[in-house]
Amino acid sequence: MTVITAPEKKSAQPPGRRGGRSAARSLVLGLVALVFGLVVWALASRGVEHLPGPAGVATEAGRMISDGMLFDDALASLRRVFTGFALGVVLAVPVGFLMGWYPVARGLIEPYIQFFRTIPPLALIPLAIVLMGIGETPKIFVIFLAAFMSCVVAAFQGVVDVDRTLINAARVLGASDRTIFLKVVIPASTPFILVGMRIGLGSCWATVVAAELIGAQEGLGYRMQNASTYYLMSQIFVALIAIGVLGLVMDRLLLRAERRLTNWQERR
Amino acid sequence: MTPKISFRDVVKTYELKDTTFTALDHVSLDVADREFLTVVGPSGCGKSTLLSMAAGLLEPSAGQVLVDDAPVTGPGPDRGVIFQQYALFPWLTVRHNVEFGLRIASTPAPERRERAERAIELVGLGDFADALPKTLSGGMKQRCAIARAYAVNPQVMLMDEPFGALDALTRVQLQDQLLTTWSQEQRTVMFITHDVDEAVCLASRRVVVMAARPGRVHAVIDVDLPYPRTEDVRLSPEFTRIRNEVWHAVYHQNLTTTAA
Ligand SMILES: Nc1ncnc2c1ncn2[C@@H]1O[C@H](COP(=O)(O)OP(=O)(O)OP(=O)(O)O)[C@@H](O)[C@H]1O
Ligand SMILES: [Mg+2]
Prior knowledge:
heterodimer; A: 268 residues; mainly alpha; MetI-like fold; B: 260 residues; alpha/beta; four-stranded antiparallel beta sheet; 9 helices; 25% strand; binds adenosine-5'-triphosphate; binds magnesium ion
């Protein structure tokens, strides 16, 4: 459906930035929430046995940062995520397009996608370790699968959902199938693919941490596993917070890229 | 003189689950060269189907659709099409939308820019050349779609209820604009509408009234009104007479169809 917008409504606000006042307001509210959370945590750590307080965790974080441990762990996890994610996206987009464009390809590939989609990538770790050893390969493989599954479906859906009228509009202007694919189908499905990538990145991040719990020498997941063996509660907390912060940052970056690339969409 | 577009005994059927639905039943119709023909009829009588066949987006189940005496084999830049839903590429600015067909035709860049510029000026979107479609009003979107079709300079314009979604004022403005361009360039136009006034006001010689279930030509009504079609013409007794005749043909056909 096309939405008719009044001409006055001409992009009054630059994309990606809300009005200055509401931005300041949400910043203040966010800070209030943060402080409140820290207070609750500090109080809780006094009551609950073995639960480290914010101060103890901050000290531990300082130590882990200064001796480079946190940085190395984060880097190891990020490297795995990016390698697996990149491979997954690079393969998923053409496969998704193929499925959307050629019904034969769809018929052949879709059953597999539907089946493997129901298996959480993590469930394949034991098998992957047996087949690929305990090195980097099985970890990157399951991350790759996580990214691939969410992106392939998104790309496929993007192609299938392209407005027929747009395709017809291109055809009556003389466009060949090739041109239609390059100039209509690809741009029209970008929003779908970007959403798929965001979901994919989220599940990659969840997968990497879990994959590192099993047989790794470094990484944030490994750090937590190791810390729990030696009862280093503060270290577990530092790793957890790092996982959350990094996941949030990556999601925000991708969201910004998405906003930028699909700025042409009508938003309600 | 051979007609520009010719529908000969055109039948269009759709295979449904257990029946065959006849959307068009032996339609024969000629559109003369440089004619501005309007087609009006109740919803579902097959107007869009007819137009899509001239555009080459649909094939007739039986009969022939000819353009310049040659059977239509597919869409082509000689026939510009305006869709009711605007169908602008939302990721392209007005200018790039208008240049779309020229790029496909590999028109050299300087000429492409100039022709796009001219088409954009013609529809009065000069100030919005670099705007994205989402920032345009409905009327402006449709003017952009018209500019996009004009830019490739088609001999025929096929318009499917192009102003259907617009308010009355914008609609009259765009009608006037369309008539001005038509009288200057004299392209052949096949214009579909469900608005009787619009059909009469725009038609150069004839209004075709279609009937539904199955879709067919119900009546062809002659229009002999002077140009330019000013407000005086729109309010003249002759206009009212033709309008009433078309109105009658559109809205009192149900009696005959249910009786048959
Ligand atoms: N793909 C299709 N499959 C089955 N029936 C169809 C299909 N396309 C159109 N029809 C039927 O053909 C008939 C004519 O459709 P068409 O779109 O040409 O009508 P129309 O005169 O343009 O109507 P409107 O004024 O509402 O746009 C309708 O009854 C519709 O239900
Ligand atoms: Mg229609």
